[in-house]
Design brief:
The protein is an alpha+beta fold. It has helices at 2-12, 31-40, 59-69, 77-91, 111-117, 152-185; strands at residues 25-29, 46-47, 97-105, 124-128, 141-144, 146-147, 189-190, 199-207.
């Protein structure tokens, strides 16, 4: 997983890490939430499956697969086989990790956030400067969310070429590595209809089997 993720980060600057973009991020909450932050010194994280975007976690892989299938000039048999393998691996991943997210916004006075999380304006937007306070990457990651599919076409075709060139040698492990890598990247992509949120997020994941954070 780290090999493919490192390749994507080096060539395509994915994921976009929040620490590269300094400045305050705002966490919207009600009075009880603020009191909990002060008393416990912690931020509450929500299971990503229950966030406001129904395409959470699926937007990126589904869009990449769609772009691969619509490659200009059509796809050959080997590419078709690779895409099928990717789809099968996405439907039946070998590892099942739960992910939890603390959402922040670059905008400290956003009406939709007051309505959704700030008691309709009676709550608080807590400004946080995370520079120098970020968790170890084995515990949590800090992403700036990317909205929409601008630039994904180049990435999709690059990955397809990479997989085709590797399938004969690495077929047994390639698809599982793809799924695991996409599960990491997908947490920093959302449908463009949510772009107003200007979200950054702290994400931690663990296995229900051994509770190891990564």
């Amino acid at each position: 997983m780290m090999v493919l993720l490192g390749y994507l980060h080096q060539k395509h600057e994915l994921p976009r890490y929040g620490w590269r973009n300094n400045g305050l991020r705002y966490h919207y909450t009600d009075a009880q939430g603020l009191l909990g932050i002060i008393q416990n010194g912690r931020l509450w994280a929500t299971d990503i499956r229950f966030l406001n975007d129904p395409s959470e976690g699926s937007f990126l892989p589904e869009r990449l697969i769609s772009l691969m299938e619509s490659k200009p000039g059509g796809i050959n048999n080997t590419e078709r086989e690779v895409i099928k393998g990717l789809k099968d691996a996405l439907r039946n991943p070998n590892s099942n990790y739960s992910s939890f997210c603390t959402s922040l916004s670059a905008n400290g006075d956003l009406l939709s956030q007051w309505r959704g999380y700030g008691s309709f304006g009676k709550g608080y937007a807590v400004g946080l400067s995370l520079e120098g306070l970020l968790p170890h990457p084995q515990v949590a990651s800090y992403y700036d969310v990317i909205y929409g599919d601008n630039g994904l076409e180049e990435i999709a075709f690059d990955l397809l070429d990479l997989f085709v060139s590797s399938v004969s040698k690495w077929k047994d492990m390639m698809f599982d590595e793809w799924v695991f890598t996409l599960s990491v990247l997908a947490k920093s992509f959302k449908d463009p209809s949510y772009s107003e949120e200007q979200e950054s997020r702290l994400v931690c994941s663990y296995s229900g089997d051994d509770n190891d954070l990564f």
